[in-house]
Design brief:
- The chain is mainly α.
- It has one domain.
- 82% of the residues lie in helices and 0% in strands.
- The protein is globular.
- The termini are close together.
Length: 161
């Protein structure tokens, strides 16, 4: 059973909450896109080995492409919320659900690696776990707000909610 919310934080309605989420994540992904694109361009200056630089550049290009796709879903979310078009909201819900799952797995793997490295890295592992939990919880909350608005627009709100 999927939860449904009637309002987002601070008493804002779902439409306003979805717009705020769309704008926030659009700015965040745009800044990431610019950062990764510029890093991919200047990666050869930071590494002496050409093979290392090529691999690192590949990672930055991948992250830039990923952020481009996420920027498109954020723009769709903003357009869908303003025009009340549910079909524009659903790609964002799917993309950020997948992203939240990948982040959760990434934080877990990073924490395990920290725990395995040495006893001095245990504190880092705990910090990674705490940061990961907070990040994934915030993503889940945002997904729940947008999905609730999607269900409101499509008229698929369960009875008794």
């Amino acid at each position: 059973m999927v939860m449904h919310m009637d309002q987002s934080c601070c008493g804002l309605n779902l439409k306003t909450g979805s717009l705020i989420i769309g704008v926030f994540f659009a700015v965040e992904t745009f800044c990431s896109l610019v950062t990764y694109s510029s890093k991919a361009d200047s990666v050869y200056e930071d590494y002496t080995s050409a093979s290392d630089a090529k691999e690192i550049k590949g990672v930055f290009v991948y992250l830039a492409v990923l952020n481009s796709a996420m920027l498109v879903t954020n723009i769709l979310l903003i357009m869908g919320a303003t025009q009340e078009r549910a079909s524009y909201l659903f790609p964002w819900v799917i993309a950020y659900t997948v992203l939240a799952a990948i982040k959760a797995l990434g934080y877990l793997i990073l924490a395990i690696v920290c725990f395995m490295l040495s006893t001095s890295a245990v504190a880092t592992g705990v910090a990674v776990l705490i940061t990961g939990c907070i990040s994934v919880c915030l993503y889940t909350y945002c997904i729940l707000i947008v999905f609730s608005y999607y269900r409101t627009l499509t008229g698929t709100v369960p009875l008794g909610v």
